[in-house]
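Before we proceed, please read the two lines closing this message. Report back on whether the structure tokens fit the sequence:
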Amino acid sequence: MNKTIVVTGGTKGIGRAIVEKFAKEGFTVLTCARSEDDNFPENVHFFKADLSKKNEVLAFADFVKQTVNQVDILVNNTGFFLPGEINNEAEGTLEAMIETNLYSAYYLTRALVGDMIAKKEGHIFNICSTASITAYTNGGSYCISKFALLGMSKVLREELKPHHVRVTSILPGATLTDSWAGVELPAERFIASDDIAQVVWTAHCLPNTTVLEEILIRPQLGDL
């Protein structure tokens, strides 16, 4: 039986790179995003969903369970960034960030991890950020949500290690995605999304007796 991977936010950026990497390696891939996308290999199954909404997270989980018999890897990648400071960001910014960047991972993990526990095997990746460990001006609610996601990852690691389910937090710095659109900086000042996908692949390929708990990745020339 082919291995399966679930990747949220898989139509662009880091999520897209992970989808394409694991599809190329022969995995059955299930992914979702708010906008339709049918430009995938045949071993990729797409479901349209806005994961800021709990009912759509659960609908995607149902789609996964109806499409495959097991999930070997879950990548909680969905997220977005709005600049601002706590004292002046728009009303509702914190709620939007928490719903998308944290709750989507929380609800989807709860929906899918039971089978991993039952078979005593599985790997969960949470795409966090350097903003999960470093507060910065104009980070506001984004930093809060990413700190919380890393905290959730740490809790999951403790809860799931007796069940032989691995949990890895990926903490990328500035990655060349749509979040940086319009910024006049050379590509070499960023991490390539494909590099993040390669890191996820490498971490997963370690023996099941070993886990990379946290992986901090920055551009070679440093943070922006």
User: Anything to note?
Assistant: The helical segments are 13-24, 54-67, 93-119, 140-160, 193-205. The chain is about 40% helix and 15% strand. The chain has one domain: 4-217.
